[in-house]
Design goal:
With about 160 residues, the protein is of the alpha+beta class. The chain is built from four helices and eight strands. The protein is about 30% helix and about 20% strand.
């Protein structure tokens, strides 16, 4: 199944954290290969005052793991990279890994919602996802990633060199 993960970092060496996240995702991929979008620098959304800018990307890979297993492994990796176990919502973090979708799986539990519930409203997720899958229509959406992105207001997102 195809999995997509949103990566973000707004603490420390943001690019190094994303590269480490991508290397980790390669270990979860059936064939060790991961497609990666461009990196984008974005303003923090819903974060405490004084939070630094994020660097965001999306990675897509093939996996045979369940959504719950992927989520557990990603959360363990975030903790290993320095993300506090107890934190306030949207607190600054070295690495954030969000499971955006896994094939056509649909979940709505206390621990996991698929596709990601705020994916369609976040330019910092849709822009890098559009780099890789512009025509993708996710379960529960009537529009492609490209169309969802076009419907969002312009906001400060800068493609990194």
């Amino acid at each position: 199944m195809e999995a997509a993960v949103g990566l973000g970092s707004n603490q420390g060496d943001r690019f190094a954290h994303l590269r480490a996240g991508i290397a980790f995702l390669e270990t979860l991929a059936c064939d060790g290969r991961v497609e990666v979008s461009a990196f984008y620098e974005t303003a923090p959304v819903g974060c405490p005052p004084g939070s630094g800018k994020f660097v965001n990307a999306v990675a897509i890979f093939q996996t045979d793991q369940s959504p719950e297993d992927l989520l557990a492994r990603m959360e363990a990796f975030e903790l290993a990279r320095g993300r506090p176990a107890r934190r306030t919502r949207n607190a600054p973090r070295p690495l954030d890994l969000d499971l955006l979708y896994l094939g056509d799986n649909v979940r709505d539990s206390a621990d996991l919602t698929l596709p990601h519930p705020r994916l369609a409203s976040r330019r910092f997720v849709l822009q890098p996802l559009c780099d890789l899958r512009p025509e993708l229509v996710l379960p529960g959406q009537g529009s492609s990633v490209k169309e969802l992105l076009a419907a969002l207001p312009e906001e400060g997102i800068v493609r990194c060199a």
